[in-house]
Design a protein that fits this description.
Two copies of one chain form a homodimer. Chain A folds into two domains: 173 residues, NAD(P)-binding Rossmann-like Domain (Rossmann fold, 3-Layer(aba) Sandwich); 109 residues, 6-phosphogluconate dehydrogenase C-terminal like domain (6-phosphogluconate dehydrogenase C-terminal fold, Orthogonal Bundle). In chain A, 52% of the residues lie in helices and 13% in strands. A six-stranded parallel beta sheet of chain A has the order 3-2-1-4-5-6. In chain A, strands 7-8-9 form a three-stranded mixed beta sheet, covered by helices on one side. In chain A, helix 5 links the parallel strand 5 and strand 6. The first copy, chain A, starts with 5 loop residues before the first strand and ends with a helix. The interface between A and B is large, with 89 and 89 residues. Chains A, B: This is Prephenate dehydrogenase. Chains A, B: Keywords: Oxidoreductase. Chains A, B: One of its GO terms (molecular function) is prephenate dehydrogenase (NAD+) activity.
Chain lengths: 292, 292
Amino acid sequence: MSAPLIGRLVVVGVGLIGGSFAAALRRAGQVGEVVGVGRSSDSKREALELGLIDRAESDWAAALDGADLVMLAMPVGQMDAVMAGMLPHLPAHTVVTDAGSTKGDVVAAARKCFGARIGQFVPGHPIAGAEKSGPSAARADLYEKRRVVLTPLAENASVAVDLVRQAWRVCGALISETTPEHHDRWLASVSHLPHLLSFALVSELAERPNAEEIFNLAGGGFRDFTRIAASHPEMWRDIFFANREALLAELSAYEAELAYYRELIESGDAADLEARIGSARAARTAWAERQG
Amino acid sequence: MSAPLIGRLVVVGVGLIGGSFAAALRRAGQVGEVVGVGRSSDSKREALELGLIDRAESDWAAALDGADLVMLAMPVGQMDAVMAGMLPHLPAHTVVTDAGSTKGDVVAAARKCFGARIGQFVPGHPIAGAEKSGPSAARADLYEKRRVVLTPLAENASVAVDLVRQAWRVCGALISETTPEHHDRWLASVSHLPHLLSFALVSELAERPNAEEIFNLAGGGFRDFTRIAASHPEMWRDIFFANREALLAELSAYEAELAYYRELIESGDAADLEARIGSARAARTAWAERQG
């Protein structure tokens, strides 16, 4: 047997994202020991029972000793505090990456905490959420054929970026690379805004006195449109704040589009309305075909 | 063998909805002959080849002769013209129903065309769309455990409503009854508005010069949120116009909710934002559990 890619992996936040990363590496035989760190003892116990981690630690020095790779997989709102706690105990050879859904704020937090050691931090984002959360939702195949975006920094040694790239490749992910700024703007369009729109639809209906009757008439379209409205509230609150600027810009563009649809419907402009819907259908169908 | 529920069924519009209705009744042995009527000869030929219909007719007199039930399954924008063409040839014993996604406008069109014979028309709406359309998308199990809303009229004989109810029961559907007005208001909330929101997201992104790059970063949340954006443009154009008033009222309520989210994000109100998202998650989760 050749040595695994990662001798010791530390996962901070042993939920769906961190747990699935560990499970995928373990399934491939590419990790020696997995150490779990997190604020919830219940999650750590559950992760131990499920075999996602080999050891749970609440002490940074013990957790980080001999670590080859650290995966930060908590909600992005906790990045600052976690990085500040971790850094004094971080060995010089250890590579740190993250799974945060926003990159600009995470890189800013990392620059502040890591300082001259920023080269050790390789930012990343697996685009593979699910409405389920927690260790019990973790699956070794979560990342198969899913997109992972890395936003490497000028300070990263190529060996550090390679380690993170290889780890995701072992998980079966498709890897893209771009800048943190592009990442945040694009993700605001295709992920953060859709989540906001889906939350808003459901929370508005839920407030109504006859909500249950209305929901009873909902069908498959509603089910799919609102699946992401069951996503984790704290995680999404953090993402909306972390990517506020790009998200609000996307929201403005979207509101303008909605106003255009309203105008077409009010004025009875059948040809333009059908063309606009047709352009959505064509783009959605082409995308689905590219996804295979 | 006992006689089938429907000796002769006429399906006007042999696409996903009408074709699946015929296929389900046939699978259950509850239809004798299925006659297909429609403006597209390609669809009729395809429906014949697939065995969805036994006979295609373009002449109303030939199509309606001896018909027990007529299912109107074209886009709602064609109801007026179809009903006007059909009525002079409609036998007195024949029950007519429809699958239109809006009911107020269909009932208004029916009252105008049927006049004193309005008792023959039992309005209905199966909530079982799909992004696919056409005869090849038809499936005998499309309506299993799906909701069908009937909005019977005061003039309907109970035997006419019963026939339609039994036909849908044979298809495996769950049947609700309400007024056309309630139907339209509720469907605007849980179906028409979500379609509009999904079309708007995709058509806005599709216009951008870097649309393909952006779409490439889209994941599972985007896939589900935008599935309905691949729906049939003409059908949805018609629905938006047919249910314009209720839809625009829902859109206004939604825009107010979006403005509230914007305010929470701009002001950094973490507690209220998390609570609002939490209320969406709770309502969505409870609904999914009721659906089983």
